[in-house]
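Here's what a typical entry looks like (Cell wall-binding protein YocH):
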Amino acid sequence: MNRFFRGVLTATLLLGYAMVEATHAEVRRPQILQVEATAYCTEGETASGEQTRRGIVAADPRVIPLGSRIRVDGLGRRHSRTYDVEDTGRLVKGREIDIFMADCDAAKEFGRQTARVRVLRAGDGERKAGT
């Protein structure tokens, strides 16, 4: 009888361990979203306290938190790259991103495009220290 309980206990522990490992595997899997991408050229301080620069995007913080690092694909060689989410925007809602471009003509020409976003590292949603 003692062997029976030991076997049940061992099976339960192994099953629990397998479930924990499966849960961790799901958490580590990068999140991929289909988004609408636009561009903006307004220079200044972002919502996170950074200055606008190449490589920054605005996103809805309820979807992609401030401080996140994302990979954007589907925008051609020039704009498919890694970006930092350092800004928000009153018109950026839901599954939308707004890419900062220093050239306003290029931002207008960019228009509205569908892209794939993979969250490489989720941010904490906080402003940078000292800002």
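The chain has three helices and six strands.

More examples are in the samples folder.
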